[in-house]
Write a structure and sequence with these properties.
The chain is mostly helical and 176 residues long. It contains 6 helices and no strands. The chain has one domain.
Length: 176
């Protein structure tokens, strides 16, 4: 039973990874400015969560409609980890080996967007200057930064996965 649940998670994760990698490649190739748009990032986040939920629901159906908390969480976790790991590897390859200049251009656009947002919300100039100096010193696309982002994303999505598993779990009344 657990092997079937894991297989569902792996299959969903590979599909998710392919979709996320395609989005990353298209954004890189067609419109790099989209990488800084909040609605693109929100859409990707929602897509990842949906794939995790679908993996948990499919797993519950695969085991006959009743699933433990743990068995509902496992396919969610496997799905999101595989999906975002594939996407992270693609991003590392693109922005560190194929076209590091694209990473710099996107980083500059992020800084511009951040400055505009801070000004819009009336942040003091000193705070804006400090934020810009801090952002100028970091490379969000370095291998280390992307791996750190992957780890933080996994932690955050795991919390969501725990909530999803609590909702999806269903105890067999025959076992009670």
């Amino acid at each position: 039973m657990e092997a079937n649940i894991k297989k569902i998670g792996v299959n969903q994760g590979l599909t998710l990874g392919l979709i996320l990698a395609t989005i990353t490649i298209l954004v890189y190739a067609v419109a790099q400015n989209l990488a800084t748009e909040w609605y693109i990032n929100l859409s990707v986040f929602i897509l990842v969560v949906i794939f995790g939920i679908v993996a948990s629901v499919k797993s519950r159906k695969a085991v006959g409609g009743f699933i433990s908390f743990k068995d509902a969480f496992i396919p969610f976790f496997i799905t999101v980890v595989i999906g975002i790991a594939i996407n992270t590897v693609i991003s590392i390859i693109i922005y560190n080996f194929i076209d590091p200049d694209a990473a710099q251009a996107i980083q500059e656009q992020i800084m511009i967007s951040t400055r505009e947002m801070m000004e819009k919300f009336g942040a003091p100039q000193q705070s804006i200057d400090e934020a810009m100096a801090q952002m100028a010193d970091q490379n969000s696309f370095s291998i280390g930064a992307q791996l750190q982002g992957l780890a933080m994303t996994i932690v955050f999505l795991s919390i969501i996965g725990l909530i999803v598993a609590a909702i999806i779990k269903r105890k067999d009344p025959a076992e009670a």
